[in-house]
Amino acid sequence: METTVCPWCHTEIVWDEEFGPEDTCPHCNNELSGYRTVTLGIDDLEDEDEPEMAGEPDQDLVSDDNLWDDEDKESVVPIFNTLVQFGEDYDLKHYESKVAAILAAQLEAPECPQCHELMLLSGMQKVEGFEPSSPEELGGPVLKPPFALNLFVCPSCFHVQHSLAQEDRIQLVRNLSTGAK
């Protein structure tokens, strides 16, 4: 008996010499001889941005007429990369390198709920005009003003998101863990 290891799922396949080797993996049903490596260069990626000059337009392209049409598409929500509109006036490659450098230095980088890019910390916002709730169970306010919010901006779709600053997270945890019961 000889063995073969599937390059797709790494399952060891034992085959009988009488029947010969398997053509497909019995575990994942992929071709055992069809394992290929695809390499993409920067030129290949740039070609994707160029419009195709085919004779017939592609029927699967999203247009304004069928943006919310659910035919043949399950739960597809269109997300437009609003950054593309600045491509002619600004150097977007330099923009992307600056974004990457800023993200590398950030301690916290939430994911944008709109387009799933990592968000940039753009600053802190002080909140002073805030009326806290004081649940009976807690016996005091959940969070006392003034406090600060971290303001995150998505570099791709410009969605804005807030989160409680680190010092005020400590205040919140302290209030909830030591409050009256």
Written account of the structure:
The termini are far apart. The chain folds into two domains: 34 residues, no CATH class; 100 residues, no CATH class. About 4% of the residues have low confidence. The radius of gyration is 27 Å and the shape is flat. The strands form two sheets. Strands 3-4-5 form a three-stranded antiparallel beta sheet. The protein has a two-stranded antiparallel sheet with strand order 1-2. It has three helices and five strands; from the N terminus they run E-E-H-H-E-E-E-H. The protein is of the alpha+beta class and 181 residues long.
Write down the overall geometry: flat
Q: Helix/strand/pairing class, anyone?
A: alpha+beta
Distance between the termini: 69 Å
Mean pLDDT: 76
Number of helices: 3
Count all strands and give the number: 5
Q: How many separate structural domains?
A: 2
Give the fraction of residues assigned to helices.
10-25%
Backbone CA Rg: 27 Å
Order of strands across the main sheet:
3-4-5
Largest sheet: 3 strands, antiparallel
Low-confidence stretches: 72-78
Strand content: 15-25%
Order of helices and strands: EEHHEEEH
Q: What is the compact description of this entry?
A:
The chain has 181 residues and is an alpha+beta fold. 19% of the residues lie in helices and 15% in strands.
